[in-house]
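COURSE: Structural Biology Practicum
ASSIGNMENT: Worksheet 4, Part C
STUDENT ID: 0417
INSTRUCTIONS: Below are two proteins. For each, the amino acid sequence is given first, followed by its structure token string. Answer the questions at the end about the second protein only.

PROTEIN I
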Amino acid sequence: MKQPMQCQMEVDQMMESKTGHGISYRCYGDPEGKPVFYFHGWPGSRHEGQLFSDLAKENNCLLVAPERPGYGRSSAVGHLSLRSWALLMGELSDHLGLPAFSVMGLSGGGPHACAVMSCLSSKVDRGALLVPMGPMNAREGVLRMHPLQRLMAEITPLAPWFPKTLMAMVRPLLRRTPGLTLWAMRRFLLPDCDQKALSRKELQPILQKTMAESLIHGISGMYGDGLRFLEPWQHTLDAVSCPVKIWHGFADTIVPIEFGMYLASKIKDSEGEWLEQEGHFSVPMAHAQACFKFLSQ
């Protein structure tokens, strides 16, 4: 496959959409490989795709990593629904000259990958979901969320100032000292499997860069994601027609495995890998190779 004209490798690029959104993205992997749109976590940025650059290249995949509005260099122009996000990705595929592509969603990128699969079903070949967030009607998942996460999800429709205030309070720490934030997360919040996964020295510069970049212009990216998570997007899952594979761990303390299981129960052509003693960060580190093998088929 010939490299799309607008997809230079590992440099910042921008698409100006018809709706006035500037969508920043980076490309990784094999410039002539099978195109895969990578949707980052919460929070995240275009730099997150660098985590999988070598694996994408090994498996002949061209990884396109766009930033959602409000993150990094992507503009924040009002609120964007999941459907609107999917339509933007249709624009991006046209911008890149890609008639078809696959999608890969990690954590908070899961709902955005599902939106693209459901709204652009004729364009999407395959979908891979790693530790994906699910809709709020997946009650077993909601009940196993961290109490603060659950509180934010339940109070946002009634008092949107609360999550905004909380995000604004933690933003300086995340933005200015991402290394300290990651250390504290490893030390106090995560199971042993995730602590081990995050201790790999080669990951730290990428993770710190993506965390700092995600919040460079404020909290609008994080807050916008939160609003999209709360949409009733479970009703769109029956429109997903491509093959989908999901990887999720029983030890995940960030996004409970019940969310992944819910998605597998609602997406017709789906298969789940439910992993013992694997967590939120160990799953993508240990199973990304299998993910790219699936996407490259």
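PROTEIN II
(use this one for the questions)
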Amino acid sequence: MRREVQTFVADGPPLPDWDAAEEEIDRRGTQLEAITKPVTGEEAAALVRCLGPDDCYGVAWTLLHLIETGPNPALNAKPVPDANEWHHRLYDRALFEEPDPTT
């Protein structure tokens, strides 16, 4: 796993919520932007655990899109009903993804 991913994962799961300080959210966003695409399957699995309870002022969307650059699906089983909404969103997006006609 690349150092940038290890740093991001080690700093928390999950992402901070809306109540976090602006500096914390900015720091996590900067860490996320340091991770180049695509991610590996191992990195995607580690990053999934970082999805938090809300969108973290857009940082969660950036994280979700980064996870989607890895081998799909990042989640192989449907999340339990009370799982994090981001896990449901990630699973649903992979489930309904249009197949790439070039592959």
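ANSWER KEY EXCERPT:
Q1: The chain has five helices and no strands.
Q2: The two ends are 26 Å apart (CA to CA).
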